[in-house]
Structures are given as structure tokens and as C-alpha cells.
Design brief:
The structure holds 2 protein chains of 2 kinds. By secondary structure, chain A is an all-alpha fold. Helix content of chain A is 76%, strand content 0%. The chains are: A mainly alpha, B alpha/beta.
Chain lengths: 75, 285
Amino acid sequence: MDNRELAVSRILTAVVSEARKMAAEGVAAPEDIDQAMTNGALFKKPPFAYTLEVGAEAMDARLKEYAAKYGKQFE
Amino acid sequence: MEVKRIGIVGAGVMGGEIAFVATQAGIPVVMKDVENRFLEAGVEKARQIYAFKVKRRRMTQEEFDEKIKLISTTLEYAPFAEVDFVIEAVPENLELKQRVFAELEAACGPGTVLASNTSALSITAIAAKTGCADRVAGMHFFNPVSMMRLVEVISGEGTSESTAAAVCALAEALGKAPIRCKDSAGFIVNRLLCAAMMEAIRCEADGLLTRAEIDNALVKPDAGLPIGLFKMADQLGIDLLYKVMKILEGAFGERLAVPGAIEKLYEEGALGVKAGRGFYEYGQS
């Protein structure tokens, strides 16, 4: 992964981490969160669709790795 | 509930854009503000969007005139006795919004839905100085309102189900895609956008790439953002972001704390495009 890919990965994964907390808090359902990011921020890869693309297990592993390397925002 | 007339409080750019989407759907609006120059600016915003349609031949001059006739303005609340739905779009200041909602309670009929277009403040707090929290909800439009389909519909602690349903129904009547969410700091989009911006700032601070390189990577097809995050921050305004991020920091702590880079720009008055400088430099216009 080059630096460009890593930056994109970190940024989209930070959104995944926060979106998971948001869904767990009951602020909105995952599909509604994705739709909001698509229609309100024009994200082509909203967090839960991005997770499917990466693969759920690969995303879990990535979140762990990034939390260790880059900080609490990925916990 | 069919909405026959909408009251808009706060005739800034947002108020003008909301007047446009409402009248486009054929619903008359009355805009209220505290000074004529604000009312003029709000009406002008709606006129500009319609004028562009005339220029592109998507609308005739007669249709333009009919639409503009649907917009009236006022410095007093008196005409609000006749509206069945209010959208508040005054500056993001809790005390100001609390006062406006108390005034609306007094000015409007007992069945009027009172919606706030706040992007960051708590709906429960905004309704706290009224005796009609059941009729108060959040109706958060996104800029530019004429282009963006999302409306976040927020229920505060006291919001009734019928009020939230009425806000959703109006959003749909305006051609929008409402999404309901709880009264939580930053609602959905601002919280997640700020999380993305904070990580972009960390990537730059870690020496991974420059901000221009990060923005460039984000708009490539693999990431697919319409605009880079640093550029978006400058367009939204560093002052607005600072306020939203402060609220997020207060609600969620260290992981969503205001980044040093944002604090620095804010203190320097480098508030983005409108100030000629933010994360990037802009020519004076």
C-alpha cells in the first residue's frame, strides 16, 4: 500500500469506526447512515458499503491494526 | 397533514435556499428576519436560483414571476398566525434559537410544526424554553439545499411521533430524502464528516502526504469523494467546523477533539474561502 492508498484507507476507515459507534448508540440504523452519507456528503463509499467491499473480517483486523498504530479513533 | 404555508425564520443564504425548494414545490412561504437587508438577501438567493433556470430555458419568465409571487417577507411575527409549518434558520446560537422558539410558540397556531434547521445544536435544548416540545423537531437541510437530497429529521426528547412524521412528509413533498435520527451531537453527517477531516489532518501531521495530495487522492475514483476534505473544510468555513467540532469534543471526548490545525486557523481568522485563506490560499474576490 503506498502513501496515497494508506491515507484514503485511514480516512474511510476512521468513518467506519465512528459509524459503528453511531449505529451501536442507536442514533440511526446502518442503512440509514449510509444513505445519509450518500445524499448529504456525496460519499460514493459510505461506511457500511465500504465495509462490505473490504470484507467484514478484514475490516475488523484493519481497525485493530490502525488503533494500535494511529490512535483511539479506531478503537 | 398537508402544508399550505411555510414560515421561514432567518433569511440568510440557507433561508433563501429553503424558500426556493418550498416554492418550487408550490408552497407559499413567508420569510421573517430582523432587518430588511437580510430579507432582501434571502429573496435574492431564491431569485438567483430561479433566474438560472430561466437562463437555461428550464423555466419561462411567466413561471418565474409566479414562483417569486409565492415569497413574502416580514419583520414581525404577525403573518406566522397563518402558517402551518415553520423552518427556523437563524445563526447557530442556542440562546438565540431558544428565544426564537419561545416567540414562535406565542405567534403560531397550536397545530403548527416548529422545525429547526440547526446543524449541531440539541433539539431538546432548543425546545427547552417552550411549552410545546412535542411540536419541535430538527429538519437539517444540506448546502446547497437546491442540490442536496438529504434532510436529517431529528426527534428531541419531547418530539411527538406525529411531528417527526410531518417533518418527513414535508421533506418528501419538497423532493428530498429524509433520514430520521436521534438528537445526538453532530447528528449523522456532520459527525462522520468531521471524523473524516480529523483523520485527514492526522495523515498530514504524520507526514504521509501534503494536504493537496490527500485531497487529490480522495477525489480519485477509488475513494470517490466529490471534493477533497481540506477544500471542503475551507468551503464550509473553519468557524462553522470549529463550532461543530467543539460540540463533538464535548459529547465524545478525545477521539473527536478539535484538531490543533483547525484551532490555529480559527484563531488566526483564516476561516476558509470567505476569508481568502484557510487550509489553502484564495485570491481576494
